[in-house]
Amino acid sequence: MLSEAVKNLVPYTAGEQPQDRSYIKLNTNENPYPPPESIKKLLGSLDTERLKFYPDPLCSRLREKLGSLHGLPPERVFVSNGSDEVLSFCFYAFFDRNRGSVLFPAVTYSFYPVYCSFYNLPYIPALLNPDFSVSIDRFLQEAANSSGLIFPNPNAPTGILLEPDKIESLLSRFPQDKAVIIDEAYIDFGGKSALPLLDRFPNLVIVRTFSKGMSLAGLRIGYALGSKEAVNALFTVKDSFNSYPLDYISQEIACHACDQAEYFRKMNAEVANTRTIFTENLVKTGWQVLPSQANFVFARKPGISGRDLYLKLKERGILVRHFNKETIDQFVRITIGTPADMDIFLHTVSRFLN
Ligand SMILES: *Cc1c(COP(=O)(O)O)cnc(C)c1O
Predict the structure, then answer these.
(1) What is the tally of structural domains in the chain?
(2) Residue where one domain finishes, among candidates 258, 278, 300
(3) For a substitution probing ligand 1, which of 84, 110, 206, 336 has the most ligand atoms within 8 Å of its CB?
(4) Lesser CB count within 10 Å: N end or C end of the chain?
(5) 222 ligand 1 Cβ < 6 A
(6) Are residues 150 and 23 part of one domain?
(7) 321 in the same domain as 236
(8) 354 CA from centroid of ligand 1 (Å)
């Protein structure tokens, strides 16, 4: 009964969301702070009769709002059901095996190889520098064998940011007929966006999400910014899967959230501040912590494996993420929670590490 394609699929493993007890969840990079209270009022005021109609398939109002936030016309904004879906559409729209492999960092968001397997695309994992930063030299060396490049900035799970001048240098040397997709899922925590480069490089596509910096992971909204041509291609892909991936209620809440930029800015500055203090405390107690511009840190404690750290923390009610992969298996990825969450983390590890 099953297709050959589905038999060969290896799906992405999402961070666990266990229901057996309450945990301090530092494993899926959700924001520790709630979205604005005003969403409650908005929900109460929605016209439920509208639910009998299909929602706007073009998400026109939301694309206007996002466009004006980023100084772009709505024709250069694509939105869909979570940035994971937007990313998957990007793989379909911009990469193909006849022109080469998909290029991405050897240590990166583990959904990328999953999309490659789904769309049957070969890929090239580009080794990182010894300090775990992404290597633009490697990207450029492999550019000719690739049909395009994708990487998160800051990278996941390292949290390391590639500075805008390096991105500019990469784009100016990368073949202009191949897409460069920058996944800015974590750009709201102190990094600089590649947005100012969009007009100069029509092959650049930026993907964003409401899940991390806007505290709306439960809503499932992601978007892409690029040339009109790129956005049209994403619409063509979307309309070949599902005409209405964003429901009426999500579109309304997302539009409302676009008007709350100041709230999110303050909230994320808090997260970044907690990250700085938490990092200092880890370093003081002998941890190695990679320099993060995201809402998580990637850290290791010499003398204990990443897996043991993960297990010991879980037993004690704290979830972090461990990746069972060579070169990073000594590390755990720790989401930045509230200051109280991070104090509990530090207190807990200090008890079992000594
Ligand atoms: C969390 C994350 C996403 C997915 O975001 P959604 O909009 O919730 O689907 C995409 N890329 C990276 C690198 C992420 O960490």
Answers:
(1) 2
(2) 258
(3) 84
(4) N
(5) yes
(6) no
(7) no
(8) 36
